[in-house]
Amino acid sequence: MAAERTGRSHVAVVIPAKDEADRIATTVRACKALPGADLIVVVDDGSQDKTQEVARHAGAATVRHTVNRGKASAMETGANVVAMHDAEGETPHLLLFIDADLGESATECAALIEQVAARTCDLAIANLPPQEGAGGHGFVTGLARTEIARATGWLPVQPLSGQRCITRAAFDSALPLAKGWGVETAMTIAVLRAGFTVLEVPCNITHRATGMDMRGHMHRLGQYRDVLFATIRMRLGGGYMRPEEYAHAAHTQTQHSPYRAK
């Protein structure tokens, strides 16, 4: 399947957020400068602070989960809000999902929008530079990369990146989203299996890094668990492609080039 035609691109930025009152306003304001962005939706996922109020004052449309329901649920809620703003008979908004703590560096996501709007791909994923203070040994990234390759033949650089621009059709192909931290890995597999094109794009984005303290270790263990469970469910449910289906694409792929598994 070729990249979906978008015509004149309207972009909706969806920002899942929990307890981000200190940074959400800067992130929202930065998003206003993104090309084609005419809607910014902040989904307050059970915050205990004033995330929703601050985001609204910064100019975002907001919706709130009264309890924390997780990133995947927040993404789906945000996408549903965007769908209500899509004009009947016109091309749906492109969806740009970003983290709430990007601050001014959210403007770097313009590179993702440009690739999808140009129909180079249906899903553009940001490759971030090394983050100051980042910890870990890459075991979660390694698991996600291995499972995406096993399912589709693609070897991404940063399979866990949450900064993603995607067409509505490609997003719908990944529903329902995998729960927890498995959402990005499962989304990538589902989109490629559906015949869409994926591209990693270098972006100079910065955000808070997970350190090497006990909290950081527990966070990474949770990520590993969610990626493992999500991919096991997909594999058992027939969500992995057969190797012969993606053999040619896997053999000819190059880094930072569009990839279509079949």
Gyration radius, rounded: 17 Å
How much helicity do the residues have? 25-40%
Strand order across the biggest sheet?
3-2-1-4-6-5-7-8
Give the strand tally: 8
**Termini Cα gap:** 8 Å
The backbone outline, from C-alpha atoms, is: globular
pLDDT < 50 stretches: 1-7
Beta percentage is 15-25%
* Largest beta-sheet details: 8 strands, mixed
**Oligomeric form:** single chain
SS summary, helix count: 9
Q: Structural class, please?
A: alpha/beta
Write the H/E string, N to C.
EHEHEHEHEHEHHEHHE
How confident is the prediction overall: mean pLDDT?
91
Structural description of this entry:
It is built from 9 helices and 8 strands. It has 262 residues and is an alpha/beta fold. α5 runs parallel beside α7 (183-193). The radius of gyration is 17 Å and the shape is globular. It starts with 10 loop residues before the first strand and ends with a strand.
List the helices and strands and how they pair.
Layout: E1 11-17, H1 24-31, E2 37-45, H2 51-57, E3 61-65, H3 71-85, E4 94-97, H4 110-117, E5 123-127, H5 139-152, E6 164-166, H6 168-173, H7 183-193, E7 197-202, H8 214-236, H9 243-252, E8 259-260
Parallel strand pairs: 1-2, 1-4, 2-3, 5-7
Antiparallel strand pairs: 4-6, 5-6, 7-8
Helix pairs in contact: 5-7, 5-8, 5-9
